[in-house]
Design goal:
globular; 129 residues
């Protein structure tokens, strides 16, 4: 059993949000940075990677959920520049609209919860099957 790199003082069993977040960092060879923690958590919840298409889709989902930042506005505009993927971005926006408000959540208390339970609690559907 390997110790997760995220919050090493705690062990998060497989299938929990915390373990999946640690696996995300390991898979992409990233070092957790506090300023990116929320965005990385959104990527795990939405089952996204780090491609430009996925990053744009995450911001479209956040916009649908009621959160707009400068980066988000840039991604919305950038998404329009990719007409081939516009349907995917629009679907991400709709999933954000249908979900319970998650953009302002403190995810720390949810790290030991099963990932599927957190998604169900938020009524949040992954962007990728």
């Amino acid at each position: 059993m390997t110790q997760p790199i995220l919050f090493p003082e705690f062990y998060h069993p497989h299938t929990t949000l915390g373990r999946e977040l640690a696996a995300f960092y390991e898979r992409h060879e990233l070092v957790p940075e506090p300023r990116h923690l929320h965005l990385d958590t959104y990527c795990v919840l939405l089952r996204c990677g780090l491609s430009l298409k996925d990053e744009i889709a995450v911001h479209w989902c956040l916009a649908g959920n009621g959160f707009l930042s400068f980066e988000g506005v840039c991604c919305l505009v950038l998404g329009i520049a990719f007409p081939r993927h516009f349907g995917f971005f629009r679907a991400a926006y709709r999933k954000g609209r249908k979900a319970h408000r998650f953009h302002s959540l403190d995810f720390a208390p949810l790290l030991d919860q099963p990932l599927h339970a957190v998604r169900a609690q938020l009524a949040l559907q992954p962007l990728h099957p």
